[in-house]
Amino acid sequence: MYYTTMSGDLSIDRIDKIRSSARHIVRELGFMQKGLAGTDLSPSAVHTIIELGYGTVNTASDLAALLHLEKSSVSRLVQKLEKHDLILAKPGPDDMRSRVFSLTAKGQALLRDVEDFGRTQLRSALNVLSQNDVAQIETGLTLFAKAMKAPPPQAAAATPQIDVRVGYCAGVIASVTHLHATFYAQHYNFGAVFERKVAMEMSEFMGRVDNPVNTTFSAFVGDELLGSVSIDGEDLGDGAAHLRWFVVSPNSQGLGIGKLLLGKATAFVDDAGFDRTRLWTFRGLDAARHLYEKHSFLLAHETPGTQWGTEVFEQEFVRQHPARGT
Fold this sequence. Notes:
Blueprint: H1 12-28, H2 43-54, H3 60-67, H4 71-83, E1 87-91, E2 99-103, H5 105-126, H6 131-149, E3 163-166, H7 172-188, H8 192-206, E4 215-221, E5 224-232, E6 240-248, H9 257-272, E7 276-282, H10 286-294, E8 298-305, E9 312-320
Parallel strand pairs: 6-7
Antiparallel strand pairs: 1-2, 3-4, 4-5, 5-6, 7-9, 8-9
């Protein structure tokens, strides 16, 4: 059953008419399928070409924010565009480890084709209307786009209360294992070897988590685990702490869970007096790497390996105690 009134001045009938028109525009412009704008590229790839061509964005982080994609998805997207010689990556001017993207000559030619295609589509549709109607459409769509960018007024009030629990808590081993297993199976084809490794090694660790040099920080909203990280101060020795099982749920996007957890983990190892902190991960986890580097971890070593059951480029990151330098 549908109701025809709602709070404020807008009726549900009016809202649904606008939604219906928006769906029609999306379908007619081809946004529901590959082949957008006369190319064989995905919609997100075409948008990347357009925004790079306009200079709206030039980094992976900018693209992720603009296209509302995870950084791992953007990484795969730009790799495909680089492979097709449509975009070029260069080191950033302020950070040689970052990459700045631009269009190649082939990409610029594609942009011209896309622009011509889009203009032709709109011209054929708008030519049947009066100049006054076209002006109204221009104004309306501009206002609509502006309104869509604005955050809802209740967004700040809707931010959930995050509860960070320290050490073992009921269900944390299973929840952390589940987050790892599902994410890495979906995105990187990790299987039973990886899931068993996480479950067994974390179970062993929880048997000694009460040692003052060990800890786990887990972020919850209610009973839902949104992220976790552990510091193992025993297994490496020689003044080194081991950062382990860092994971953030896809459901926590935008809540700052990763930054919160890594901040607590690095504060713990600094207060405990460790000379350095080491972690192992693999190439391609750009969002996690960005967080590590924000917390002063540096890439120390990279080599192909299969310790997680699937061959990847394994990476070791090291963070020095800030008072001890390098």
